[in-house]
Amino acid sequence: MEFKSNIDEDILLCDDVRNSVNTWTADVTSDGRFADTLDRYNRTARMKVLLILALIAAAALVTVFSLQYGEISTGVIGTLQILWDNMFGNADYDDYITHWTLYRTPPIIGAVIGGAGLAICGAVMQSVLRNPMADPYTTGISSGASFGAAVAITSGALLAEIPSLTVLLAFVFAMIPVLVILGISKMTNAAPITIIMTGIGVMYIFNAGTSIIQLKAGSSYTAALENWLMGNVQLVEWGDLLPMGVIVGAGIIVSMFLANKINVLSTGDENAKAMGIDADRLRIVCMVLTAIVSAGVISFTGLIGFVGLVCPHIVRMFVGADNRYLIHASAAFGAALMVAAHLIGKNIISPTIIPVGIIMSCIGGPVFIWLVVRRNKNTW
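User: That's the sequence. What structure does it adopt?
Assistant: Structure tokens below.
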């Protein structure tokens, strides 16, 4: 039997097959529907970019407002001038207003960096684990980091000899929940809700360990440990901003490069493997990345929860689940939210400062309940 290269001459093909082949091989640019679809996509992409820029601008405005807000202030221009002079060593450190401005600046900048870092951790984890309730807090990573930091804080002389001991132990113990989650998901092919429940179980174990340390700690460490466990950006000093910025900045850059692969992984391991992506290795890389970033934040600011849970969900309502936009938007919104929470905590019952971790818990608790209800309706 002779086969024809021209499908119109091949007697083995029916008309439906010929029509389908012609449709698929036609020049789509000549179809007006293709142009309309492409135009809608471009408009949507531009709107997402504009929203990200608006969130960045909002974070900048909230930060500048918080820097100059208070009874002792020279206004926005004066505050920025003081910070500019401080960068180049020209500030008048004997001036009272300058001294007060430089004193309250590190916690605010720390809130910006910490909020951005924890928010991207939540965005990445929710996509990788395909679970709307995943974040460093609910998966136990934050509790592991807090346990390691508590060990370092109560170590006394050893901490004085090794200044980076807090960051080191926070990272080491933050990796334990990651390894447990990855191990269980690998051995049992666990569902996403099982992974979260495992993380919550690990969180309770580390919280119990931290409580034991708190009970056994001497009186000289109790106040510092309690202040740290409440999550307080007031702990951040000028020397902490550089390592925090490097860790979070590197985490944001790496997550941006992985955004396309994370998008594919979020649709399922089978689809990822079909696209040539090693799903297991990518999941491990992302979990280690979130552990490093969250530990790098928590070791300086204390235990702060729900930032990674709240921010990605709110942002996802406007930019969608595409991580190419979600990661940027979450970082900007997380920074703005953390600074706003710090500002509220400083002024709501002034002169007493409510730690930002308490403010975020007040926000995150109701949102978590809403997510549980929403999850049961399978709308995520």
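Residues 54 and 349 are 30 Å apart (CA to CA).
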